[in-house]
Amino acid sequence: MDIRQLEHFAAVAKHLNFTRAAREVHVVQSSLSASVQALERELGAPLFERTTRRVVLTAAGRELLPTAHRILTEVASARRMAAGVSGVLRGRVVLGAIQMLTWVDLPTVLGRFQRAHPGVELGLYESAVDGLLDDLLEGTLDLAYVARDDTPLPAGTRVLRTYEEELVVVVATDHPLALHRQVRLADLAAERFVKFQGGAGLQRVVEHLCAEAGLERRITVRVSDLGLLLSLVRVGLGISIVPLGLAERTDLVRLRIVPSYPRRTLALVARESGLINPAAQALLYALHGDDIQDAEGGLGPSDQPSPAEPRLA
User: Fold this and answer.
1) Does this model's pTM top 0.90?
2) What angle do CA 42, 46, 50 make, to 5 degrees?
3) Cα–Cα separations (whole angstroms), residue 180 to 174, 238, 252, 254
4) Can you tell me whether residue 296 is helix, strand or coil?
5) Fewer CB within 10 Å: N-end or C-end of the chain?
6) Which of 6, 120, 157 is nearest to 74 (CA)?
7) How far is Cα 187 from Cα 170, in angstroms, rounded to an integer?
8) pLDDT tens digits for range 53-86
9) Which phi and psi angles does 245 have, rounded to 5°?
10) What backbone torsions phi and psi does residue 8 show, to the nearest 5 degrees?
11) pLDDT per residue as tens digits for the range 92-122
12) What 8-state DSSP symbol labels residue 277?
């Protein structure tokens, strides 16, 4: 029995799904299944009942789970202590993020972080807001970038930093609206829309925005992939409402929404208990530097929305 096998077992027990568990521990599903099967052979008992419809813990699996969690917690603690003694940062840190994240250039920051700390195993997990918050509370994630609306964050989480970003309408370059620089949502009733449904946070903000403007969107396409959404807008299958930072990275025409210039709020969140993982503290500093002064205790001064001035010409 080795630690990796226990990590794989705990992940499957958490999700009761081999595909999601494999994604969490960053291995292919076949390797995860082989690892669990090897553990079962060593223990001499099946840990899961597997059918084509579901995965459930056996009595042996339920018996093992508390012990596995205790061992994994102790191993993580030992690794942190060893890293502190050696002076070399080691361990594992996992960052969660929504798809439409334009606040931070993650590839650049994470690449720089990995070169500076080669002993740290770095994970990045992309999901919808609700999934990210669940994983954060369960300890699968150390930090998460989420989109906010009026819904309160769940108990046990806290905001480290917030950012506001303007929402705009994007249209194809040959669309009649491309001749304009701004638009009222109430004037778009006849337009076809491509709707992004991969993130509940943005969906709720846009739906509230349209309801306030009295706009009932005529949605002809629903997608959960950003690249596909932009491609469909580009070929004229509809228009869409997206964050300005995303629109600026495309060749689509951006229209400011008047009169309110609406915005969405993004937040970097952690568990209320703070970041006890030194690797997570280092990643937090790499992402936002001194803007967040106290990752272990109270919030720093940057727990206020940072300004996002309109950048449309």
Assistant:
1) no
2) 135
3) 12, 16, 13, 9
4) coil
5) C
6) 6
7) 15
8) 889 999 999 999 999 988 988 887 776 666 555 5
9) -60, -35
10) -65, -45
11) 899 999 988 888 999 999 999 999 999 899 9
12) -
